[in-house]
User: Fold Helix-turn-helix domain-containing protein from Streptomyces chumphonensis.
Amino acid sequence: MSSSYLGAYPELLAEVSVTGRLPRRDELDALRVLGERAAEDGHRLREVVSLIVGETRALWGTLPGVTRAAGPAERARTGDAILAALEAAVGALGEGHEQARRLAVRQEEAERREFIDDLLHGRSDLGRLAERAQRFGLRLTHTHAVAVCEGHEQYDDVHPTVRRIERELVARFGDRDALLTTKDGRLVCIAASGDDRAVLNAFAVLAERPGPGYVAARRVALGREHTGPGGVVLSYEEALDAVHVADRLGLTSVRLTASELLVFPVLLRDRSAIADLVTTVLGPLTQARGGAEPLVRTLMACAQSGYVNAEAARRLGVGVRTLTYRLARIHALTGYDPGNALQRYTLETAAMGARLLGWPEEEF
Assistant:
């Protein structure tokens, strides 16, 4: 490390050895600037401290105050003054170094956040985005998939659960092609996909069961694999859509995959057609006592339980006789029999469409 980072410290030390004074404010400010410069040039604080302590040791025997000391008492006073100046100089250099590092970290965080926003929203030139990605450990020419975790509370970059998951993933996979971040209160993992999707699967397990004292995920959704920067955006949107669809349908599963829910975007692609199906098939349920909502909820519970009446009744919190009565009412009002395979499929599709469109709470 160059002695240029010492600035006027040798001259200061020589004067202190004679006068016994402490460094002045302007001298300490100059040392802080030198500490900042050393940090900006990539030198660690240990190197800076080692340089100044080594310089003090090398100069000690040549300092005028030391060579002119008349006796032990004067040499002791001179030595104490030199050490006090050294202590003040190390403190000033350290302050400057730490300040520069804090600024660098904040700038790095800002650049990382800007990159993530651009990446997940498909902004910026794709070639430039790929170049920036390498700095953050991603090679966007590869195939990637995105997992989104939504918790029972908002996640941010300093959330203990986020730090816990990040530590575990780094310990297991090191610098593998992956990036963990937060976005809009959710935890997002972008990883190169392979045959085993090891990183994303480990992320999902950790999000579901992060350990005692940490916030477990409410939903974890995995998007499909796609190539390039645009593929990351698409996989991220698929994962988000999976979370929204699961919430609309009231699915009980914590972990979801976009590939398993592809039918629902297809249903919503023709909104007018699905709205027509809902009103045509389920519209008569509004005539039931208590409205259509309990009967739509009954159809959804039956579908999710594989049409096992005892399990559907348990999910609804009602008796099997009550469930049987509701199914009979559905048949009577709509004309569709839940016991008939084809008619059951029509009822189930209409019920899912109703959930996706928010019917009967929302009119259309």
Q: What stands out?
A: The domain at 265-357 is CATH 1.10.10.2840 (Arc Repressor Mutant, subunit A). Residues 72-121 form the longest helix (50 residues). The beta strands are 143-151, 178-183, 186-192, 217-222, 226-227, 255-257. The chain has a mean pLDDT of 88.
